[in-house]
Design a protein that fits this description.
Number of strands of chain A: 8
Shape of chain B: globular
Oligomer: heterodimer
Bound molecules: adenosine-5'-triphosphate, magnesium ion
CATH architecture of one domain in chain B: 3-Layer(aba) Sandwich
Structural class of chain B: alpha/beta
Structural class of chain A: alpha/beta
Mean pLDDT of chain B: 92
Helix content of chain A: 55-70%
Radius of gyration of chain A: 30 Å
Distance between the termini of chain A: 51 Å
Order of helices and strands of chain A: HEEHEHHEEEHEEHHHHHHHHHH
Shape of chain A: elongated
Largest sheet of chain B: 6 strands, mixed
Order of helices and strands of chain B: EEEHEEHEHHHHEHEHEEHH
CATH superfamily of one domain in chain B: P-loop containing nucleotide triphosphate hydrolases
Number of helices of chain B: 10
Strand order of the largest sheet of chain B: 6-7-8-3-9-10
CATH topology of one domain in chain B: Rossmann fold
CATH topology of the largest domain in chain A: MetI-like fold
CATH architecture of the largest domain in chain A: Orthogonal Bundle
Low-confidence stretches of chain A: none
Number of domains of chain A: 3
Mean pLDDT of chain A: 89
Number of helices of chain A: 15
Distance between the termini of chain B: 34 Å
CATH class of one domain in chain B: Alpha Beta
CATH class of the largest domain in chain A: Mainly Alpha
């Protein structure tokens, strides 16, 4: 009986463990699935505001326009159809609200019931018109031409520089500046954190006495536990004003501020992992170096660091990974301008900060919403690349030390 | 002949624990001296006195006189780097650096400030010849030292020690991790090296001590029980403990 009970308990525990791992796996798969399904739907959508159309005169030779061209037309950067492959005809912009400039209220009717008809009339008689109005107001005898607008495509998504998802009439969905902003800030962070973190790790692994190490290690681990808003506040109050006055900038919210904050946040990862790597250097190897007349520094520089090299690389990459995904603190100190940075002293905007800042105002299921999901997919892929790289490096490292 | 290493009334403590008790010994140049004794008797501790490797361990204290090549090596103002150039060391487990074969040998020269590339490459080749490894590695000097077999790695470590031209070589069980053929090669090498170097070797292998050494020192529980001619020790030990140990009754 006792034996049976023991067996039952064992089986139950086994079952619970199995269930837990299954739930974990399924959760991961589900997250990936939903993320990419939502993200993918962006590329089946038109960048034109939903429910609206763009129409031109039937004589106009132009048949389709890219979102960028449309933007330039409405920004009046392009003012003649000849620039778009059409006839030499000045472009005449027409928006829904402009109708009052051409027709009186009586002509349009009490409930604007003649709006479709009048719009059609206007399109018909103006050779250079481009009209932006609701789909439902297309007249039954419509005699103009509806412009074909190409869907958002992957190539444009990655190569266009402008991120302005609420622009009218077409959303500008270029993520290049966001990707570059993320990479800039992250690499800047590593540039700051790697030397500092490595130096700390070397100090802790090779030089510090046990007592000092016992104080230092928990302190560094504490750094990992501080919520990122707190880092954000610290950055906003201490680092941002310092940068502003030090470099004489109009604003202190810059890529540099983000890099410094992220560098501090990546420190615990870098210190802990590279210290572990440094510690795996066999004592015999260090002794061999010292026995050959090398001093402590030569031994660290020529034996310990090369031996721990792949571990240190892994630490750096994981640090980058930490920086790439960080949201709150970056949002608070980088200024969030969606422009391609040329120096560290300009504001930038990262992918996670964009998602956090815009998700609240993007209507669910809309183009903007989908675009943010696509951004999340990019972030996810970046993180996967980071993790795979670390995996690859540490597998190579295992081969090395198994000798 | 004046001894190259002399120790007088040497005591060594690891914190409170006394690992060496009043050791008096003199080692002559161009001889091979074997240190034998059961595990934990202090052989390694004694050997590591001569290049001050014990300094690295926390809580070590040493009393007595230790003279190497006419110098009191534990005096203040002693150049440890200089001492370690003079006193090379080969460890129990082969411990090459994670570098190429060439760079392993060149290491001692580089850290001692040698930059002349021609000199270094000549020295690397010469040391590999000395360690009877040249023919086996001459085509793969740029390969990682980890690609060599254990026995080759150990000879590489010997070559590495030889490259900085020490006059004394300390070996702590240099063949204990190796197969019989590699062991025979190392023993042959020790025999060759005796002409130009003074060698102190720790070994658990009685036959090996008998084959390679001129003098043998038997340690027991931190004390030097008997020290003398190897033949004498093995055929006619004066102390009962020595006799018991070499006949394999304990250890
Ligand atoms: N770092 C250390 N800290 C404390 N005690 C030590 C240390 N190293 C050695 N000892 C002690 O000193 C004594 C002598 O050690 P040592 O390593 O010199 O022995 P050994 O003769 O070389 O032994 P083996 O044949 O096993 O290598 C042992 O009792 C050992 O436990
Ligand atoms: Mg030993």
């Amino acid at each position: 009986m006792k034996k049976f009970l023991k067996k039952a308990v064992e089986k139950t525990i086994e079952g619970v463990l199995f269930l837990s791992s299954t739930i974990t796996t399924v959760t991961v798969v589900l997250i990936v699935f939903f993320l990419f399904r939502e993200g993918k739907s962006l590329f089946q959508s038109s960048p034109l505001e939903e429910g609206f159309v763009l129409a031109i005169n039937k004589e106009n030779a132009v048949v389709d326009l890219s979102s960028n061209q449309i933007k330039n037309i409405f920004d009046q950067n392009i003012t003649n159809w000849s620039e778009l492959g059409g006839k030499d005809e000045p472009i005449f912009l027409f928006r829904l609200d402009d109708i009052g400039n051409y027709y009186t209220d009586e002509e349009l009717g009490e409930n604007l019931e003649f709006f479709p008809q009048k719009t059609n009339e206007l399109i018909d008689k103006s050779a250079g018109i481009i009209a932006f109005f609701p789909k439902k107001s297309i007249d039954s005898n419509f005699s103009g031409k509806i412009l074909a607008i190409e869907n958002v495509n992957l190539y444009k998504f990655f190569s266009e520089k402008e991120w302005f998802p609420t622009a009218q009439p077409v959303a500008q969905l270029g993520v290049l500046s966001l990707i570059l902003g993320t990479l800039w800030v992250s690499f800047g962070a590593i540039l700051i954190a790697l030397p500092l973190g490595l130096a700390t790790a070397i100090y802790m692994a090779e030089i510090a006495s046990k007592r000092v190490r016992n104080i230092l290690k928990p302190l560094i681990e504490l750094l990992a536990g501080i919520p990122s808003v707190v880092y954000g506040f610290f950055g906003l109050i201490v680092i941002v004003p310092q940068i502003q006055s030090l470099f004489g900038l109009p604003v202190g919210e810059t890529a540099l501020a983000g890099s410094i904050i992220l560098g501090i946040m990546a420190l615990p990862t870098i210190v802990t992992i590279s210290e572990d790597a440094l510690r795996t250097t066999p004592k015999e190897m260090k002794e061999a170096s010292l026995a050959l007349g090398a001093n402590k520094w030569q031994t660290i520089h020529r034996v310990v660091i090369p031996f721990a090299g792949s571990g240190i690389t892994a630490a750096a990459i994981l640090g980058i990974g930490r920086a790439i995904g960080e949201t709150m603190a970056v949002l608070m100190v980088t200024g969030n301008a969606a422009i391609i940075p040329h120096t560290f002293l300009e504001p930038v905007r990262t992918i996670p900060a964009t998602i956090a800042a815009e998700l609240g105002e993007a209507p669910q299921g809309g183009l903007h919403f989908k675009a943010l999901f696509a951004l999340a997919c990019i972030l996810f892929i970046m993180t996967i690349i980071v993790n795979l790289t670390v995996e690859y490096i540490s597998s190579k490292r295992k081969n090395k030390t198994s000798h | 002949m004046t001894p190259i290493i002399t120790t007088r009334f040497v005591n060594l403590f690891y914190n409170e624990f006394q690992a060496l008790k009043n050791i008096n010994m003199a080692i002559l140049p161009h001889t091979v001296t074997a240190l034998i004794g059961p595990s934990g008797c202090g052989k390694s501790s004694y050997l590591r006195l001569f290049n001050r490797m014990n300094d690295l361990i926390d809580g070590v204290s040493i009393t007595g006189d230790i003279m190497v090549d006419g110098e009191m090596i534990y005096n203040k103002g002693i150049d440890i780097v200089e001492l370690r150039r003079k006193v090379g060391m080969v460890f129990q487990k082969p411990n090459p650096f994670p570098k190429t074969i060439f760079e392993n040998i060149a290491y001692g020269l580089r850290v001692n400030g040698v930059t002349d590339a021609k000199f270094i490459s000549e020295k690397v080749e010469f040391s590999l010849h000395q360690a009877a490894l040249w023919d086996e590695v001459k085509d793969k000097l740029k390969k990682s030292a980890f690609e060599l077999s254990g026995g080759q790695q150990q000879r590489l470590c010997i070559a590495r020690a030889l490259a900085i031209e020490p006059s004394i070589i300390l070996m702590d069980e240099p063949a204990s991790a190796l197969d019989p053929i590699s062991t025979a090669k190392i023993e042959e090498l020790i025999y060759e090296l005796k002409r130009n170097y003074t060698i102190v070797i720790v070994t658990h292998n009685m036959q090996q001590a008998g084959r390679v050494s001129d003098h043998t020192a038997f340690f027991y529980l931190g004390e030097l029980i008997e020290f003398g001619d190897t033949k004498e020790i093995f055929t006619n030990p004066k102390d009962k403990k020595t006799q018991n140990y070499i006949t394999g009754r304990f250890g």
